[in-house]
Amino acid sequence: MHQILHVAARATAKDHVFVDDEEFFAAHVAERGFTLVGEEDGQLIAFQIVRFPGPDEDNLGPDLQVDPARVAHMEICAVDPAFQRRGWQSRLVGAAVQAVPSGYDVIASTVHPDNAASLAALHRSGFREVARVRKYGGLPRIILRLDLNHD
């Protein structure tokens, strides 16, 4: 999975994708979140990570004026460049939204302002832009939010 992330990062502008390290994946994804994958012909070609940041310093709850314990993060979605423009990101984002368990009121995400594909995929799933900030060492980001209704 991390290999696809690096391939996707190479295919975009360097500041569009913030690549976390292996420790992030091991500590957060396996224990405090989930990952959805996309496959074609048995080949892993895309993934979407959702993280439950809890008390982590980067929790977007304070940015959104929401209890951090009630915020899930839509983290990186990567699609192998050979399979882009086939709707994989939109499908994975939509499935991830449906998979967030009750107990979370908001899903938050950050996207580089020029990352049109990610912005479009998030907008199609109902996310709305709430702020433009600098994150991850000063990189420009749009914070998006989706309010969940767990009826």
Describe this structure in words.
This protein has 151 residues and is of the alpha+beta class. It has helices at 2-10, 22-29, 61-64, 88-99, 116-124, and strands at residues 33-40, 43-51, 71-79, 106-111, 128-135, 139-147. The chain has a six-stranded mixed sheet. Helix 4 (88-99) crosses helix 5. It is globular and about 45 Å long.
Roughly what fraction of the amino acids lie in strands?
A: 25-35%
Strand order of the largest sheet: 1-2-3-4-6-5
Helix content: 25-40%
What is the helix/strand order?
HHEEHEHEHEE
Number of strands: 6
Unreliable residue runs: none
Q: Layout of SSEs?
A:
Layout: H1 2-10, H2 22-29, E1 33-40, E2 43-51, H3 61-64, E3 71-79, H4 88-99, E4 106-111, H5 116-124, E5 128-135, E6 139-147
Helix pairs in contact: 4-5
Summarize this entry quickly.
The protein is α+β, with helices and mostly antiparallel strands. It has helices at 2-10, 22-29, 61-64, 88-99, 116-124, and strands at residues 33-40, 43-51, 71-79, 106-111, 128-135, 139-147.
